[in-house]
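ugh ok so i messed up the first submission bc i forgot one of the chains. this is the corrected input, ALL of the components this time, i swear. 644 residues overall. if the numbers dont match what u have on ur side tell me asap before i send this to the collaborators (the ones from the other lab, u know who)
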Amino acid sequence: MSAPSVEKGIQFIREQIDAPIASFFSSCVHCGMCAEACLFYGQTGEAKYTPINKVEPMRRIWEQEFTLWGKVKSTLGLSRKVTEKDFEEWETLVYDGCSLCGRCSMVCPVGNDISGMIRKIREGFAVAGYAPEGLVGATKRAIEIGSPMGVRLPAVKAQIGHLQKDTGLDAPLDVKGADYMVLLSSMEIMNFPEYMEAVARIMKQAGKTWTISSKAFEATNSGVQIGVSDLARELVQRVVDAAEELGVKTVISPECGHAYTAIRWEGPNLIGRPYKFKVQHILEVLDEFRDQGLLKTEGMEEARMTFHDPCQLVRKGGVVKQPRDLLNMVANNFVEMKDHGAMNWCCSGGGGVSANERADELKFKAFKQKKSQLDELHVDTLVTACANCRITLEEGLEENEMDIPVVGLTELIADHLVQDKKEKA
Amino acid sequence: MTAEALLTWARGPGFDWALAIFVLGMLLRLFEVLSLGSKPDLAEGRGSGVAGGLKTIVTRTLPRSSVFAREPLRIINGYVFHLGFFAVLFFYEPHIELFETKLGISWPGLSTGVIDALAVVTVASLVLALVLRLTSPVLKHISGAGDYVAWAVTILPVMTGFLAYHHMLLPYTLMLALHLLSVELLLVVAPFTKLTHMFSFALSRWYLGYQAGHRGIES
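and heres the new structure output, hopefully the right one now
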């Protein structure tokens, strides 16, 4: 990227404005309902976190440059141009005070996709040089090293080695023509190695071939989070190249919310063509196995469990029913949170917030929303399907001295596989 | 200028000009939006974008329960002034007669007693909307001059209509002329304020619903 500048930032915001965005701004009646859906406003009570306010600089550019009346107002000196000061002021609203959870877009009476606009305004902030250090670093590592947390191939190989030694299972690298190519998120490689083992077990039981690409094992797309389409495109392209080179049928997005949206929905639009393979979230794959009778489990969890819906899966991805079907296979006491499914509250660390250390205090404040949802339920275990949600939830629970273990749904299922028990016996 | 002359102008050329500005202004606004275009979604879809778009145009009319629970007064009040305004606009007999002369179609109206009550309710509801806007920190923060202009040009026709009907405050002819002029003000201002939402809401709901339908997600 060339040197950042406010002019370039404005130019990038301008380039994002298409018919949908123009219709959204044309329709907004400033009713404030989006604030009621936002955990950052809800938990801070600060009006500046009203979702539609987070895109105010974009609204001004739209009005001044894309409407006749706005042009007249500009000519008469009746409107304020977007300046460096606005970028300074809005940076924290756009990055720290929004997890791109999409709840606001669900409640807007005129149908404005506000979170989608916040995702897009970030494009301008990133090129203007107004993006948080944590996300800039993560994106740089993703491009240079291949992973936002700096995970390199040897770390993946080491984990495969452990898997082989401990369980006798394998996670084969670079197998041409495999049914599935499995992506991992850095978080899973670093903090939750259970995931790889779970996938290995499930694939073995289902009799499917699978592989991990040595060239593109990372699913996290920091380019999408920080809002730099060029970099997001490069990260998607790596996966596409690897999948097409190996000729796999399906790429599996791991237990990660935004990685799924990035590769499944934004990806083809970023690279400008449809894929030659399918993309599924791991939960979609598991639910398909369940449906086809390829997923055989035994034994039921008696603990009181609930499921935290990752925002990107339910509101941007359309994976709502699958985790419920899967949980009901292995849990006798599965209870739903108030506002579950498409209206679930964010863990508070999505959209790059968890990678942005500056936002920690705000994130913990916003977590109180999740806390109040959990306080009502009195569960023993919290299940989710996103490594980033999981780490955010674990941190939030610890901060609030709540002793609730958080587990990934894939590993929970793997723990109940029939063949698993036979192996043990 | 006498009140009669003012009324004649407001009924004739004034109204025609205002209507022309309204229609051309709204068409311009819609052109400004649509001419920007949107890129086709290249991701393999799960469902129908068209079905999702059409569905969302309808479904967003109702609030989600979790948000309704947080702001019941503001939401109910929103319905009250919208429905009240529509009722007095479209179901007051003299208005229907006007539509008949301009458009050639007519429909049954409501009794003047009902319209009278609805006008009071609508004005009260709009006043409450203003109070809420001025007292809620969120609404104050996101409101600009345009919001207050839009509010004023919306309440004026209802108030002047009510006053004219009851022969209050000013001589009937003058008040009726003011009523017509306030309607003309609304028509002229609407395309250049957030009142464009009266048409563009269908577009914004469509775009959001289209994406949701394509992706197979709830909207």
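quick check: The two ends of chain A are 57 Å apart (CA to CA). that seems consistent at least. The mean pLDDT of chain A is 95.
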